[in-house]
Amino acid sequence: MTTMDTPRSGQGLGGLYAGVFGPVERVGGPLVDLAFRLIMARIFFQSGWLKLNDFENTVFLFQYEYAVPVLPPEIAAYFATFFELAMPVLLVLGFMTRLAALPLLGMALVIQFVLGASNPAYFQWEHYFWMLSLVYIFVRGAGPISLDHLIWRKSGTV
Q1: How far is CA 14 from CA 8, 61, 134, in A?
Q2: Is 147 exposed, middle or buried (0-12, 13-18, 19+ CB in 10 A)?
Q3: For the whole model, what pTM was predicted?
Q4: Distance CA 42, CA 48 (A)
Q5: Directed axis angle between helix 12-53 and helix 97-109, to 10°?
Q6: 92-126 burial by CB neighbour count: b if 16+ within 10 A, else e?
Q7: Which is more confident, 85 or 153?
Q8: Is it the case that residue 148 has pLDDT exceeding 90?
Q9: pLDDT tens digits for 21-30?
Q10: What would the pLDDT profile of 106-137 be if each residue is shown by its tens digit?
């Protein structure tokens, strides 16, 4: 076997695949991570902003329409508004991202399965997109375009 017949690393189908999709993953992966964070942040922040702008109506909705189990309506309204305004900011910054995704995931689950069970109007397929997106964020973390990544890199753990 001559040196020309010897397979070298980076050749063949695996090398072609890595050559084509390696750059896609290096550039696209962080952008996809950021896109998921921004999309979820926008959805929940807008909802929180609406709640804040008419908080009297928000409390009314939690008393008579949402009827979230366990929490009194006023406390549930405060919690929902706080989490819908604060967690999206963390998602945009990519700071404490996995923790920020959890309360939003909990809210999406309640909307779909608790409220949706009692009122079919709350059962919507887009909530599955929200849940899947928030699980993605929780599993993958913020990605390289984030404060989380910057902090972990400076601490030497990335």
Answers
A1: 11, 56, 32
A2: middle
A3: 0.83
A4: 10
A5: 60
A6: bbbbebeebbebbbebbebbbeebbeeeeebeeee
A7: 85
A8: yes
A9: 888 889 999 9
A10: 999 999 998 888 888 888 999 999 999 999 99
What would the two tokens of residue 113 be? 């399965």
Q: Extract long-range pairs of 46-52: CB within 8 Å, 24+ residues apart.
A: 47/84, 48/80, 48/81, 48/82, 48/83, 48/84, 48/85, 48/88, 49/84, 49/85, 51/77, 51/80, 51/81, 51/84, 52/81, 52/85
Q: Three-state secondary structure along the chain?
A: CCCCCCCCCCCHHHHHHHHHHHHHHHHHHHHHHHHHHHHHHHHHHHHHHHHHHCHHHHHHHHHHHHCCCCCCHHHHHHHHHHHHHHHHHHHHHCCCHHHHHHHHHHHHHHHHHHHHHHCHHHCCCHHHHHHHHHHHHHHHCCCCCCHHHHHHHHHCCC
| One-letter identity of residue 133 | S
